[in-house]
Design brief:
Layout lengths: L9 E5 L4 H12 L3 E5 L3 H13 L3 E4 L7 H15 L4 E4 L15 H29 L2 E6 L12 H21 L4 E8 L8 H4 L2 H10 L9 H11 L10 E4 L3 H4 L1
Length: 254
Amino acid sequence: MKSFTLTNKVAIVTGSTRGIGRSIAEHLAAAGAKVVISSRKAPACDEVTQSIRAAGGQAAAVPANIGDKAQLENLVVETRRIFGRIDVLVCNAASNPYFGPMAQLPDDAFQKILNNNVISNHWLCNLVLPEMAERKDGSIIIVSSIGGLKGTAALGAYAISKAADMQLARNLAVEWGKSNVRVNCIAPGLVKTDFARALWENPKLLAQYETLTPLGRIGEPDDIGGIAVFLASRAGAFVTGQTIVADGGVTIAS
């Protein structure tokens, strides 16, 4: 459908060499967008770029460490050099170096989580927002988590960062809405990615999660990619400042 077409749009997707980020990049490319693949390691970026091109899409690789502001600035500059503009930004890359109670959370781990999951998104958004506002068109998508919607005994710092991402989206949606720039979040539940491997590889935790989830299963990366297409396209033109939960129903049932 025309509403979901992204022909001639240019999208940056961070953390797009695997998991949810890769699915989002592939879905955007399939909808017609020119996609910039970005993560820390150049070979991984090149592999996904070649895969998208082999499938008939348009893609380029620009490696960047989200914790380094200069590298994010280069990501934006290189994207403009290669494709001429930026219409869609997907802030997907994140980190979680700690699993346990807040009382034992090391300061450096907490700082890394906040820097990579919140501050880097703030940096990237501010790098692309003026261009989008000047054109009176743009979409920013921040990949959050249902962890930001409820308390947790083991993922506290990560959950705090993901709740902050939802508020970042709301703030930016208010600030830039009059320029027709939309900012939204996607909040996945448990998805079968390397990032969440410690959860879904645990048979007890997996069985418990599947029992509590109305759809009876955990998510796959491709359960998320299409949501990004909706938010990036004309189909989502009247949606801003929102968090779309994609969790198989677990948050409404438990």
